[in-house]
Write a structure and sequence with these properties.
Blueprint (H helix, E strand, L loop, with lengths): L18 H21 L1 E2 L1 E5 L2 E4 L2 E4 L2 E4 L5 E4 L3 E3 L2 H5 L4 E7 L3 E2 L21 E2 L3 E5 L16 H4 L16 E10 L2 E5 L7 E2 L3 E3 L6 E4 L7 E5 L2 E5 L5 E6 L11 E4 L3 E4 L4 E3 L34 E7 L2 E7 L8 E7 L5 E11 L5 E7 L20 H19 L2
Parallel strand pairs: 18-20
Antiparallel strand pairs: 1-14, 2-5, 3-4, 4-7, 5-6, 8-11, 8-12, 9-10, 12-13, 15-16, 16-19, 17-18, 19-21, 21-22, 23-24, 25-26, 26-27
Length: 406
């Protein structure tokens, strides 16, 4: 690989500068930048380079990518794929790749060329415009992180190599174009590789917000922002964490201890701190919803919306399904959905007004009630009229008489 230089050019007074000094200086600067590109980042597409179908034409949009040798691939204008490429390669599918290219542009300043009418001479500039490669797919799927004809030892190198040699090819996959019929195409960009960042933590420059990636230290990290020292709680078992300070920090605080709002431990356990809102369905696969620690709401803190929680305190330990504020509109219903989408209630718990217009809980059962065990209740004395008592007595005696008849 060319360009693997760490030698820094040394300059001093009255030094004779040769071409080698300028060349080595350029290679040194290139090596610094490219080593940053592929060591502190992962290679791939930076932005743009989408494949679009415009007026029955296949167009690659301008954009930028970094190849595996740390070289920038800057496409400054659209590139069009000729429809004839499908027939030329005898395929209805084409893979598009972007490859580093460097060519002399033939520019020679006037008066510095060779003698004669033609002039000419060595080129003073090179153009690093990337090349769009159009190839017939080698397989149905593309492993974009293992581009073809890149040596295995390069792909698996612990220290990513760099190169300034255009003959060291590293293809960056842009996507696949499928010809459905004449002048009708479908772009497939599902396997495109994108650049990433290689880091243990990501910090916001003016906030204590932080994302930790794979950190295994048991020593807490302290970060000074303004007059406040933020202490990020350490955990040797944490492999991912998101720290976000809340807006309840006193303005006079000099120290703030932060716990992760989201964390993933090496055991696979995921932890969430603070209120969490889920927009969409929550599914449990092979697990259980457990309330390990109970809560004890003060009256003014009781949930106003339908909630389920474990309530503890003063000898009480209850799992509650709380419908919130008193309302005739809110009901707790257990039932089934029929194949046609209609809901069939089985048990309904609701609040209904009594004769004094006071809301009282009422349980309604739609269907049979089967009890395996004791059924007990509190006997409430109720005054009834003599006529009602006579009717009840007559009904009871009639039932006994019918039961004795064979």
């Amino acid at each position: 690989m060319s360009g693997e230089t760490t030698a820094r050019v040394h300059y001093f007074d009255k030094q004779f500068l040769r071409v080698d000094e300028f060349r080595d200086e350029q290679l040194y600067q290139l090596a610094l930048r490219r080593r940053h590109n592929n060591a502190q980042h992962t290679w791939g597409i930076v932005r743009g380079l989408e494949i679009r179908i415009s007026d029955q034409s296949i167009v690659v949009q301008p954009g930028m990518a970094i190849d595996g040798y740390g070289r920038e691939l800057l496409l400054t204008e659209e590139k069009t794929v000729a429809p004839e490429s499908f027939d030329d390669l005898a395929s209805d599918r084409l893979d598009l790749w972007l490859v580093y290219e460097r060519k002399d542009d033939g520019s020679t300043p006037e008066g510095y060329g060779e003698c004669g009418v033609e002039g000419g001479g060595a080129s003073y500039r090179s153009n690093e415009s990337p090349e769009l490669r159009i190839e017939r797919p080698l397989s149905n799927t593309v492993d974009a992180r293992k581009p073809p004809r890149v040596p295995r030892e390069v792909l698996e190198a612990r220290v990513p190599p760099i190169s300034d040699d255009p003959l060291d090819r590293w293809r960056v996959y842009l996507g696949r174009v499928i010809r459905l019929e004449k002048d009708k195409y479908l772009p497939d960009m599902t396997s495109r590789p994108y650049v990433g960042v290689v880091a243990e933590s990501i910090d916001h420059p003016q906030s204590a917000a932080r994302v930790e990636l794979g950190r295994e230290s048991t020593v807490e990290h302290v970060r000074q922002i303004g007059e406040v020292a933020y202490h990020y709680t350490a955990d040797g078992h944490r492999r991912f964490g998101v720290f976000v300070p809340d807006d309840l920090i006193p303005t006079t605080a000099e120290r703030v201890d932060l716990l992760p709002r989201i964390e993933v431990l090496d055991s696979g356990e995921i932890g969430l701190r603070g209120s969490t809102v889920i927009h969409g369905n929550l599914q449990l696969s092979g697990g259980a919803l457990q309330f390990v620690h109970g809560t004890n709401f003060e009256e003014e803190e009781a949930p106003q919306e339908p909630s389920m929680y474990r309530f503890t305190g003063a000898g009480i330990d209850e799992l509650r399904i709380d419908l919130g504020v008193d309302s005739e509109q809110r009901k707790f219903v257990i039932g089934f959905s029929s194949p046609d989408g209609k809901f069939k209630p089985c048990i309904t718990i609701a609040l209904e007004p009594d004769k004094d217009a006071v809301l009282q809980p009422v349980v309604t059962i739609d269907g049979d009630l089967m009890i395996n065990g004791k059924f007990a209740g509190q006997i409430l004395p109720v005054a009834i009229s003599a006529e009602a008592m006579a009717a009840l007595s007559a009904s009871f005696q009639m039932g006994l008489a019918e039961g004795n008849n064979p």
